[in-house]
Amino acid sequence: MKIGFIGLGNMGGPMAANLAKAGHEVAGFDLTAPMPDGVGKAASAAEAAAGAEVVITMLPNGAILRAVAAEIVPAMQPGAVFCDCSTVDVESARAAAVQAQAAGLGALDAPVSGGVGGATAGTLTFMVGGSAEAFDTVKPLFDIMGQKAVHCGVSGAGQAAKICNNMILGVTMIATCEAFALADKLGLDRQKMFDVVSTSSGYSWSMNAYCPAPGVGPQSPADNGYKPGFAAELMLKDLRLSQQAAEAADADTPMGELAAALYARFVEDEDGKGRDFSAMLPRFKKRHRP
Ligand code: NAD
């Protein structure tokens, strides 16, 4: 397939490299990032998009997605599919899809879970919104870049699934960290705490797969001085997206709201910026008063 790939940063770079490695013809464009092996360099986003059957974007936020969509949609060939894999607000995802569809293109929002490790290994999970026809066109590419692609519904459904998932993740990580902090103060050994909770009703991905306590559970950023992994500021971005969506949809999400406020404090006023989102655990060593 002829593919345009725009945004070749930490995630997009290895995703595009995997598509090229699988034999697809990939034209890439990024403002700063170098082209990965096998990816041809286009002079602009429009040039990368022109003539492609599928154009994939992997960009930092919704404002940038809207700007790139405005540039590439007129350059794309009729019937091609515009597939955005960035994590952005539901409104921007829908706006980009409406613009693409109005120009006779297919459109998908297909954010991912799995991080840089998953992007490199080709084991991402894609959560996808858009038409079944567009999903079927891009499915073989999802199968190269990932291990699972779930068609969640109409445009915006992929972003909705992503921010709901990450709201649960933010809340359970905080709950897991504060429970460890309480266990510490109660004199409970951290390994014993893990042994009990990881096989009891308090278990979660945060405890079992990404344990925030160093030396306990499988390897995680806690074992590497809380170097990300998944940076606290990215978790804050996703929690803010979930709160923005909750506001727009009039949904009641008090735990999500509190998690967003705690990560905001951690990133903006404490030492959380640049650290993994599980570094909430050392933060809870000290009792914080409002
Ligand atoms: P990144 O900052 O490493 O990459 C983004 C790239 O987009 C950069 O190379 C930047 O130069 C490029 N870019 C910005 N504006 C551009 C433009 N107008 N035209 C062309 N290129 C442009 O970020 P990342 O970690 O690769 O994340 C990308 C997206 O994936 C984000 O939406 C993020 O939330 C999401 N995501 C990241 C992770 C992760 O673990 N890093 C996991 C899941 C989802």
Automatic annotation (TrEMBL):
Pathway: Amino-acid degradation; L-valine degradation. Its EC number is 1.1.1.31. Keywords: Branched-chain amino acid catabolism, NAD, Oxidoreductase. PROSITE patterns: 3_HYDROXYISOBUT_DH. Gene3D superfamilies: N-(1-d-carboxylethyl)-l-norvaline Dehydrogenase, domain 2, NAD(P)-binding Rossmann-like Domain. Residues 156-281 form the 3-hydroxyisobutyrate dehydrogenase-like NAD-binding domain. InterPro entries: 3-OH-isobutyrate_DH-rel_CS (IPR002204), 6-PGluconate_DH-like_C_sf (IPR008927), 6PGD_dom2 (IPR013328), 6PGDH_NADP-bd (IPR006115), HIBADH (IPR011548), HIBADH-like_NADP-bd (IPR029154), HIBADH-related (IPR015815), NAD(P)-bd_dom_sf (IPR036291). It catalyses: 3-hydroxy-2-methylpropanoate + NAD(+) = 2-methyl-3-oxopropanoate + NADH + H(+). One of its GO terms (molecular function) is 3-hydroxyisobutyrate dehydrogenase activity. The keyword NAD applies. Residues 2-153 form the 6-phosphogluconate dehydrogenase NADP-binding domain. The keyword Ubl conjugation does not apply. Transmembrane segments: none annotated. Belongs to the HIBADH-related family. This is 3-hydroxyisobutyrate dehydrogenase.
